[in-house]
Specification:
Blueprint: H1 3-11, H2 26-51, H3 59-79, H4 90-98, H5 102-119, H6 123-144
Helix pairs in contact: 2-3, 2-6, 3-5, 3-6, 5-6
């Protein structure tokens, strides 16, 4: 067993299928989990730091700090349920979220990160909620999928620069494109 396989087996969730069902690269999955877990802990710590703003009479920073701590805890529940084993419902919530598409998680992370920034614009709220937002961006990129391969014939064009229509689509050979017939379009 190679070193990479050992690390992958350590990072697997309990009951996870060892064969991936999607075509997302392994480093994107671990980046999402890692940034989410670390970002959740940092968001909780910096949210508590924002709550100190009540000493200066800034109620919006108190609300922002509480929101940021709840958002950080939610991200930790979803991304690293092993950190909250003492709560009964955590594993079921995490498994439920795992079955959802990546874009759902991306949307939720990006949405829950924004209110703390809007309520109290400061370094601690930007850094704490920014890491949660970055996790949402990573999951958004995962939902898009990977780009086409180099040898993908659908993305290749002919040497003349004209992309021929795929066979079997009912397109006939007499179909004219802008690139084939110079009388169709002329630059001025």
């Amino acid at each position: 067993m190679s070193f990479g396989e050992k690390i992958a087996s350590i990072m697997e969730r309990p009951g996870q299928d060892p064969v991936s069902k999607d075509d997302v690269p392994w480093y994107m999955k671990y980046a999402g989990r890692g940034v989410g877990t670390v970002g959740g802990f940092i968001a909780i710590f910096l949210g508590a730091w924002n709550c100190i703003g009540i000493l200066l009479g800034d109620v919006s920073c108190l609300i922002s700090g509480m929101w940021q701590m709840v958002a950080g805890f939610l991200v930790i529940i979803i991304e690293a349920p092993c950190c909250c084993m003492f709560l009964d419902f955590v594993q079921s919530v995490s498994d439920n979220v795992e079955r959802r598409p990546y874009w759902n998680r991306a949307a939720v992370y990006c949405i829950i990160a924004l209110p703390a920034i809007f309520l109290c614009l400061g370094v601690s709220s930007i850094l704490g909620s920014g890491l949660i937002f970055a996790t949402g961006v990573i999951y958004g990129l995962m939902s898009i999928g990977k780009k086409g391969q180099v040898a993908d014939p659908a993305g290749m064009s002919s040497p003349s620069g004209v992309v021929s229509p795929p066979s079997g689509t009912g397109a006939s050979d007499h179909h004219t494109t802008l690139m084939e017939d110079p009388d169709v379009w002329r630059p001025t």
